[in-house]
Automatic annotation (TrEMBL):
<dbReference type="InterPro" id="IPR050377">
    <property type="entry name" value="Radical_SAM_PqqE_MftC-like"/>
</dbReference>
<dbReference type="InterPro" id="IPR007197">
    <property type="entry name" value="rSAM"/>
</dbReference>
<feature type="domain" description="Radical SAM core">
    <location>
        <begin position="91"/>
        <end position="166"/>
    </location>
</feature>
<dbReference type="InterPro" id="IPR058240">
    <property type="entry name" value="rSAM_sf"/>
</dbReference>
<dbReference type="GO" id="GO:0051536">
    <property type="term" value="F:iron-sulfur cluster binding"/>
</dbReference>
<dbReference type="GO" id="GO:0003824">
    <property type="term" value="F:catalytic activity"/>
</dbReference>
<keyword id="KW-0408">Iron</keyword>
<keyword id="KW-0479">Metal-binding</keyword>
<dbReference type="InterPro" id="IPR013785">
    <property type="entry name" value="Aldolase_TIM"/>
</dbReference>
<dbReference type="Pfam" id="PF04055">
    <property type="entry name" value="Radical_SAM"/>
</dbReference>
<protein>
    <submittedName>
        <fullName>Radical SAM protein</fullName>
    </submittedName>
</protein>
<dbReference type="GO" id="GO:0046872">
    <property type="term" value="F:metal ion binding"/>
</dbReference>
<keyword id="KW-0411">Iron-sulfur</keyword>
<keyword id="KW-0949">S-adenosyl-L-methionine</keyword>
Length: 167
């Protein structure tokens, strides 16, 4: 199993328990809510190995900890959110390189928030518990701040999909 990107693991406390997700393959495990403190303590203490229940869960969801890095650098610890939202779709731009006849957009010019406001939006989504973030447009990849937006969402522990026309 190859680790595609850094910090692929996310722990997210939810009403039903502690969700542990491998963003490389979208596999997940649910642990008891009481496990949150255990995990946070172990990360803070930089223990050489994850606590037993997490070691098992990490293996169960198919994440192989690289031998050249400690386990805790691969996990984003999310705070308990204020709500239990799951999924959000965000149209980050109206710009598009296509002119499809069926398109509901008008000018297809760049209209999107500046980066500071995007970060504020992501902070709110994080607090609301958003796990699955779908980024779309327009053409999402034509957005001048696409990379910054994607990275900021990733750092906040979201599982991201991108809707694109592929051109
Ligand atoms: S690719 Fe999508 S956003 Fe772009 S013109 Fe076609 S329908 Fe509209």
């Amino acid at each position: 199993m190859t680790n595609i990107v850094s910090r692929a693991l996310v722990s997210l406390p939810r009403e039903e328990g502690l969700l542990l997700i491998n963003r490389n393959n979208l596999r997940a495990a649910l642990l008891p809510s009481e496990a949150v403190a255990n995990l946070e303590d172990a990360v803070a203490a930089r223990t050489p190995y994850p606590p037993g229940e997490f070691g098992d869960a990490i293996a169960e969801i198919g994440f192989a900890i690289p031998p050249d890095s400690p386990w805790y650098v691969h996990i984003v610890l999310r705070d308990r959110p204020a709500a239990n939202f799951g999924r959000v779709t965000w149209e980050i731009t109206e710009r598009c390189n296509f002119r499809c006849v069926h398109c509901y957009l008008d000018e297809k010019e760049q209209r999107g928030l500046p980066l500071t406001q995007r970060l504020q939006v992501l902070d709110k989504l994080e607090r609301a518990g958003c796990l699955w973030l779908q980024i779309t447009g327009g053409e999402a990849l034509a957005d001048p701040l696409f990379e910054e937006t994607y990275r900021a969402a990733w750092e906040r522990g979201m599982v991201i999909s991108v809707l694109t026309n592929g051109a």
